[in-house]
Amino acid sequence: MQRCAPRAAAFAAALALASSLTLPAWAQMQRRFPANALRGEAVFHPAPGIQINGQAAQLAPGARIRNTDNLIVMPASLVGGKAEVHYTVDNLGMVKDVWILTTEERAKQPWPKTAQEAATWVFNPDGQSWSKR
Fold it and tell me: Which residues contact 44 (CB under 8 A, 6 or more apart)?
């Protein structure tokens, strides 16, 4: 039994080291937003309610909300919260996809807040940035 304990401890240490080496690379991956993603300040209400830039809206059936780690979160876990987000709207005007932004993503300026701005600006999908014409 005593010979197994050092092996188990060594295995646990190697596993912890391997985990710590892979997490930073995963955490540094840049999320890719579609060209129709707009930026806004979201206030989360009981589903399907959401407020974007002070305007009442509804989450579409099957809407996806992703946190700063790009993991899908349930709308009920965000009720009462506020966050700067990128979001898309479906053909019926309902909010389809929401990404809660990280500090680095919020720093990317400019980013359109309305469909009219997006129609007159130019999107660079590789750099995930916008430029005004």
Answer: 50, 75, 78, 79, 80, 81, 82, 83
* Rg, Å, the chain Cα set: 20
Query: Any residues with CB less than 8 A from the CB of 78 and at least 6 apart, and which?
Result: 44, 65
Q: How do residues 58-70 score in pLDDT, each as one tens digit?
A: 999 999 999 999 9
102-121 pLDDT, tens digit per residue, is: 999 999 889 999 999 999 99
Instruction: Indicate the domain borders of the chain.
Output: 38-132
Q: What are the Cα distances from residue 60, in Å, to 1, 6, 82, 124?
A: 58, 54, 19, 27
Task: Give the integer Cα–Cα distance in Å for 129 and 111.
Answer: 7
Alpha-helical regions (H) of 28-120: 103-107, 115-120
* Whole-number Å distance between alpha carbons of 24 and 122: 31
